[in-house]
Amino acid sequence: MSRLGPGLILALIVGFAFLYLPILTLIAYSFNASRLVTVWGGFSTHWYGALMQNQPLLDAAWLSIRLGFVSATLATILGTLAALALARHGRFVGRTLFSGMVLAPLVMPEVVTGLSLLLLFVAADVERGFWTVTIAHATFSLGFACIVVQSRLAGFDRSLEEAAQDLGATPFVTFWTVTLPLIWPAVAAAWMLAFTLSLDDLVIASFTTGPGATTLPMRLYSAVKLGVSPEINAACTIMIGAVAVVVIAASLLLKREQLAGS
Amino acid sequence: MSAVASLQRLRRLVIAVPYLWLALFFLAPFVIVLRMAFSQAATALPPYAPHWEGLAQLGDFLSQLDIANFSLLGDDPLYWQSYLYSLRIAALTTIFALAIGYPLAYAMASAPPRWRGTLLVFVILPFWTSFLIRVYAWIGILRPEGLLDATLSFLGFEGEPLRLLNTETAVLLGMVYSYLPFMVLPLFATLEKLDRGLLEAAADLGATPVTAFLTVTLPLSLPGILAGSALVFIPAVGEFVIPDLLGGPDTVMIGKVLWSEFFSNRDWPLASAVAVVLLVVLVLPLVLLQRARLQREMAA
Questions:
Q1: ipTM reported for the complex, 2 dp
Q2: Of B255, B283, B282, B271, the residue nearest B33 (C-alpha)
Q3: What is the pTM of this model?
Q4: Element (H, E) at B10
Q5: pLDDT digits (tens, 9 = 90+) for A155-200
Q6: Which residue from B minimizes the CA distance to A229?
């Protein structure tokens, strides 16, 4: 069944139009010379220039990138360890609780995660800011990272690890020279997912941040609350462009690797 | 001997590090929320420090529990109405996402294998772009004199502007739009693995395509439907951003109630009680999701 009937082609067109039209109109209007959304005033990059002057927004973007970098790295390390623990270490005391705790943040409403972490930080009397948001983001993206790595570990030839150990490699050396090179696409994908989740999060950051640490989504949220402006469209377009380039490049790389592997 | 000992150490470390992290940053906060939900606003005003009683004082502790926050949730119609409303919006979102997502996933799974990867990337791509951006795109379309009104009048439809922004329709559109990839991905995963030979067998035995779909494809894709529905329904119940930006005064979802109890009214115990009830509401769909996962694992 490699031929698509007209009904299925229609389903594809409707589905993808629904997914992409809103984003495409948003991008189109970032190049609108007119401030009014309904009036097309000709092509202009004016709003991108204005964006470069918007220091608070640029600061927030830089903060979010640093935050995403640190929290994604933490989440990937912890998530990979959790995946190894769940995939390799069979039964251990408290395994059910452990897998529950890994997976629960995936389905936990963001408002609940945010509120509960804030209450912890208040109880522990720590100063809120960059690091509290980093910890919060690492905690909720850990589960996502774990699932991505776990799926790779599931289809993994364990005899390679056993061979390395038979040849005298310590468990650490085995992990570093055999396991990690084999699972790295999943680890990289986990990192990217965690980074995006962090960059995207408004609710948890709003709860756990402190004065002086305003993330990009928080800035955008308060701007959106005030209304539509082509400058926000320009900011969104840059973010969409960056994400599209990274995701498409990553999927091409992955495809090449799969082709090389098969 | 030393290799075995070091293996043991490493094993313990692999488990202990994420375990401790989660115990500290997931379990402990959760316990604090529970404790806070049973506190009085007066003693729990920020800065709040929990008082950890020993086990001996457990009875004492239980007698001190204040269920006032919960009875307020029951008494004030605002709260239970917004719970019901959230469930309603989440259910409608799930149904619409299924209605759009199933044909899409089915078409993707029926496409030639070399297209499938590309189609999948294009379904996932919007999911990687910021949530806020996707909601913001809809504001531009739905707002008065926005793109939808402009398009309609351009096409010659005269009359009142639609005024869709800040209505339930807008919230639903935004929710279905944002959560659609969560529905499509598990559906695609199940439909792609479906043995096409079964459909041919059904056709050979005289089943019409509709009968074959209803008796073969649909039942076999049920795990995907369940997983996708849970992945849409569960986060949709607690959604805050979409009802806040696209909704109006009459689309009060529970996530928004929690947010404003916390940020506007500064009633931390009440916000915690709202959170606890929200989690209780989500237990049933979570159990269903877990069962779908187990079924998939058994099948694999």
A1: 0.85
A2: B271
A3: 0.84
A4: helix B2-22
A5: 777 888 888 888 888 878 888 888 888 888 889 989 988 998 898 8
A6: B140
